[in-house]
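pasting for ref. prot 1 ->
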Amino acid sequence: MSKSNNVYKDAYNRGLRLLEETKSLPSEPELGALLGVSRTTIRTILARMEETGLIAWNKRSKTVLRAPRAGDFFPEEETDTLSQIIERSFMRRLLVGGAEPGMQINELELAREIGVGTTSVREFLIRFSRFGLIEKRRNSHWVLKGFTRAFALELTEIREMFELRSAAAFAALPEDSPVWADLDLLEDEHRLLAREIATRFNEFSELDERFHRLIHRASHNRFIVDFYDVIAMIFHYHYQWNKAQERERNEVAVAEHLAYIAALKSRDLGKVDTACRKHLKSARHTLLTSIPEGQQP
């Protein structure tokens, strides 16, 4: 499924919820601002709503004819949030462009490429800029400032603090918590990947992100969960810039994850702490060795 299709389906589902709150929809520019997508996407959404009998659309008039039913929504598994779509597209652009310091990032081009509104892209870039990796310039332009060893050390220190706390909280969750079923599924995926690592080693990054995100959610701390978005972007994309020994390091990481999962299931806080620290130490080494020599200060 294309990223533009994901944008459309996510925006369409959110548009359906607007129908539950009003008798008529606002103008196309206002809808675009509300849903964070382009006017082209808004027109596609309105056309589908008209076809399915949800609205009567006559130029500027968009009268709600009925409330949406469950069958009107796209399945959740077919949609990504707008922030996830922008994040992935942004990091993909950095990878393709080589992500050298001084690289130019244009809000309008990025928004057009993804198929979303420029406001949504700008909000994402502003949020990402807090960590000092990009800097705002005039005329909707941003500049990549680069990634230094000092920045990486600061980032890994915070990550380790957060994850050690989250892992301990995870191990203390009750047996009937749904996270244990999620962990079982992730363990099965890890074992399958371990068996097929020779041909699927490049699929580890996505599995790694889902595993650590599950652990961080156990903290029930919005600041930890929010900050992990930035950690994930940097860890799971930055070290892809250096492909040296990718299979070997991912094979080691899968094994460390399985040991980490076993420790979590044991609920032994000592074992959890040991497994977590061992894996995070490896992740720190991987990140630091990915930094080009020119960015080492």
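and prot 2 ->
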Amino acid sequence: MIKALIETLRPRQWTKNLVIFAGLIFDGQFLQPMPFLRVLAAALLFCLVSGVTYTINDLLDIEADKLHPQKRNRPIASGRLSKQMAISVIITLSVVSLVGGYLLSPRLALIFVAYTLLILVYSLWLKKVMILDVLVIASGFVLRVLAGLSVIQVAYFSPWLFVLTTLLSMFLAFGKRLAELKLLENNAISHRKALDGYTVPLLNQYIMVILTAILITYTLYTFSAHPGQSNYAMMLTIPFVVYGIFRYLYLIQSDLITSSPEEVLLKDRQLQIAIGLWGLSVLAILYFIF
């Protein structure tokens, strides 16, 4: 049962919560122990909140998941985890995360509540509405960034990073929709109603538009990464972003993957290297070189 419980909480998808560290890193506080520990605690608590929302979603989607070739093996859909146990987990983790969030910062607790309500509305209604389903996912990532900012004092956080967070999450979400269409084929609508409005050509167009916007937005961010300084060293990181985006685009277009973005991140070595080199170059530029 413990294994089924952990699987329901989706620890592999907790990689999404790494964006909580954005404010800490880009404000130059990553190497300061106290801010780092506060953001780390916020990230861990957000993992619990994420686990709660995943469990709620699985409870609401039992019948649809049973029709999905992969999701039918989830603990609740397959019967390995009872509904009663799932509800107990939801209540327990909700209390722990809210109390812990409030102790760190009352604003963080409010963000937890807002995120949970957003995902609840998404699970009940918005995930059935095309385009809105992706916008909700993007909003969730923005709330993650705000969660990291809520527990520390930040001197400067570029507005371009909020825009970039939104665009990147939309890019990943549309990519996931494309992978779902390819995997489910004629059964796509029975699993996710929003897929009824999506087609492969339409999703390809959405992805191209967002891809262009991401590259422009990130480039504009690099111009203002060091406010008040004539320093454009962050532009050196653009090639890693270009390669990472093109690599992910190649994977979803080549039928090599039919899984979620976080699964791709954990499996594709070239994408991991690109992200790693980007991260190292950002840290070097912000903390050691300039």
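The chain is about 70% helix and 0% strand.
Residues 33-60 form the longest helix (28 residues).
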